[in-house]
Amino acid sequence: MSDIDFSQELSSIKETFATISGAVEPDKLRAQIVDLEKEASAPGLWDDQENAQKVTSKLSSAQAQLRRVDEMGQRIDDVEMLHELGNEENDADTLNEANTEIERISKDLADLEINTLLDGEYDERQAVVTIRSGAGGVDAADWAQMLLRMYLRWAERHGYKTKILDTSYAEEAGIKSATFQVNEPYAYGKLSVEGGTHRLVRISPFDNQGRRQTSFAAVEVIPLVEATDHIEIPDSDIRVDTYMSSGPGGQGVNTTYSAVRMTHIPTGLVVTMQDERSQIQNRAAALAVLQSRLLVMRHEEEAKRKKELAGDIKASWGDQMRSYVLHPYQMVKDLRTGYETSQTQNVFDGDIDGFIDAGIRWRHQQQKLHEDEEE
User: Fold this and answer.
1) What does the H/E/C string look like for the chain?
2) pTM to 2 decimal places
3) What CATH number does the domain containing 84 carry?
């Protein structure tokens, strides 16, 4: 890399970092950390474990964000000094080291920039993800299970804690549906761009004639409801049915009616929960997911009303958002962003950050377009 190229790259990096720093507002973040540290050290904090976990989680997230910004600023200063030193001493090794480091900084800065784009109302929440098999019979049920594994592996790669809340197994293979929770700040902001219909094209392993099969599965991502959301649901609006939990092939997991099916009568929303051993725990978990879905529904209705008032009723997200093709060629392509890869097995093993990052950038661009149209 020549001095001119290095200077141009450094200038671009400084400009991007200034934008990120302006969005993060480090001074404001430091003040927030001080307040959270006071809360975290308050006597009796852990008397309310749920609140204590929220406080410590927010503190950890804020500290990590500030640390990333501070460290990035220091790295940019250091690489500039390193390059100047290499030029002064005409040291090729030092210049090569500076060139290598600025390439690393450019990549890490792109990751940092993604985090600053997660500024939606619920982006900082934990996520509840539901996967449902669609058209395609047994292949679709198998495809739904493949997607479940993909997202769980993605979370595992990042060290995010997950919890399976409910699984409905298909008769022959795969699953009819599954719901799991990702217990990590900003999990909703990241995974929300995965919502939509996912299409798989492959030679069916369930077809003895080896024909190509197209299968569909739907992914729903909602933010985990918090106590401050005030989603009140009258008891008269809920019907609760109980049944025995079951595993693959319909085998009994236990002999008590601990599984819960909760129906919200006014909207027809249905939530099932069978992960916990007690009916009381499953009922509480089902209520939390139902409240989350009602929260999203309320948010979508408010957004729809705003669009109608503005005379804009365009759909921003297509129903089918990504294709996974295994035959006659290998390709995974996002139909909204155009991001694609031929490394299909890596994708199925949870390597989906490229798709998520592209989706977040795409969403941010769409939001800016809408804002510009409204002005």
Assistant:
1) CCHHHHHHHHHHHHHHHHHHHHHHCHHHHHHHHHHHHHHHCCCCHHHCHHHHHHHHHHHHHHHHHHHHHHHHHHHHHHHHHHHHHHHHHCCHHHHHHHHHHHHHHHHHHHHHHHHHCCCCCCCCCCEEEEEEECCCHHHHHHHHHHHHHHHHHHHHHHCCEEEEEEEEECCCCCEEEEEEEEECCCHHHHHHHHCEEEEEEEECCCCCCCCEEEEEEEEEEEECCCHHHCCCCCHHHEEEEEECCECHHHCECCCCCCEEEEEECCCCEEEEECCCCCHHHHHHHHHHHHHHHHHHHHHHHHHHHHHHHCCCCCCCCCCEEEEEECCCCCEEEECCCCCEECCHHHHHCCCCHHHHHHHHHHHHHHHHHHHHHHC
2) 0.69
3) 1.20.58.410
